[in-house]
Amino acid sequence: MQTFVAEVDRITNLTHDVREIELRLLEPTAIDFQPGQFISFDIAVEGKPRPVTRAYSIASPPSRPDRITLVFNRVDHGPGSTYLFSLKGGDRVHFKGPAGTFRLKDDGTRDLLFVATGTGIAPLRAMIWTKLEQGSPRAITLFWGLRSQRDLYYQQELADLSKTYSHFRFVTTLSKPEPGWTGSVGRVTGLVTEQIQSVANLAVYLCGNGGMIKEVTAALNAKGLCPIYREKWYDGEPDAG
Ligand SMILES: Cc1cc2nc3c(=O)[nH]c(=O)nc-3n(C[C@H](O)[C@H](O)[C@H](O)COP(=O)(O)OP(=O)(O)OC[C@H]3O[C@@H](n4cnc5c(N)ncnc54)[C@H](O)[C@@H]3O)c2cc1C
After folding, report:
1. Which one of 3.20.20.140, 1.10.10.60, 3.40.1190.20, 2.40.30.10 gives the CATH number of domain 2-99?
2. Which band of pLDDT confidence, cut at 50, 70 and 90, is reported for residue 1?
3. Distance between CA atoms of 112 and 140, rounded to whole angstroms?
4. By C-alpha distance, which of 113, 120, 112 is closest to 146?
5. Which of 37, 114, 200, 236 is the most exposed, fewest CB within 10 Å of its CB?
6. Which of these, 73, 64, 160, lies nearest to 121 by C-alpha position?
7. Nearest Cα to Cα of residue 10 among 20, 26, 22, 24
8. How high is the pLDDT of residue 240?
């Protein structure tokens, strides 16, 4: 793994507790990675003899190798989250990477299903952009689970992508919507059960908490066998963000 120095170029608050930052690489000036891979920060923690290491998936495609986008949510008192939320425009950061085996695999002509909860969208966004940029003709579906309306982000971007690329569609489902929501309600597992008729021609990529990954894997297995690639970030409830 290589060590990189980068500058925080842009910070965007996507929701009340999710932030996106764009890092511009300084040394070296480009990063060679596969969509789905992550980078990691070593973070000093008061009272601990050694820094803790935290991984963050690259949310942008490799077609722009001089910049990477990270998307992360607030975790109270968490060293990784606190560090990333403390960054200001112009700050310099050091990270290692790229790493990880959660990457686009060659599954021939299979259609692609991506399933995320919360910020688990990060590596899937890099993968989806890459597939669409490459002109892949295969049908691409994204199921994304969030909690309520105030947790929504990237909805316009995804809508624009689905207009430009007719073989891409996405469904965002809310597990605890406020009144007035006319979209899908429930967990991503429900979408998989109801909307996926057959897995015979499907390759699936899952990213998020352990509860969702377990449930969705079981829902897919009930329909038959297909390649399922998983990136579990932490053990958590299926509808967690
Ligand atoms: C390969 C990989 C890629 C990752 N990519 C991302 C990413 O792109 N964006 C991102 O936000 N996180 C990502 N994570 C999670 C991230 O590495 C940290 O675990 C997270 O930021 C919490 O770290 P912390 O030090 O702030 O809190 P900690 O003190 O380490 O965590 C406290 C507890 O919070 C829970 N937790 C961990 N992650 C989350 C989360 N995202 N949301 C809610 N609860 C959580 C866990 O139960 C954990 O025990 C990734 C993890 C892995 C393994």
Report:
1. 2.40.30.10
2. confident
3. 5
4. 120
5. 200
6. 73
7. 22
8. 54
The CB of 186 under 6 Å from ligand 1? The reply is no
Q: Which two tokens stand for residue 187?
A: 């967990």
Residue for token pair 């963050």: 56
User: What does CATH list as the number for 111-234?
Assistant: 3.40.50.80
Above 60 in pLDDT, residue 11? yes
Residue corresponding to tokens 């722009």 = 64
Q: Which residue has the tokens 């624009």?
A: 160
What is the b/e burial string over 84-102, where b = at least 16 CB atoms within 10 angstroms of the residue's CB? bbebeeeeebebbbbebeb
33-44 pLDDT per residue, tens:
999 999 999 999
CA of 159 to the centre of ligand 1 (A): 27
102 ligand 1 Cβ < 6 A: no
Q: What confidence tens digit (pLDDT) does each residue in 191-200 have?
A: 999 999 999 9
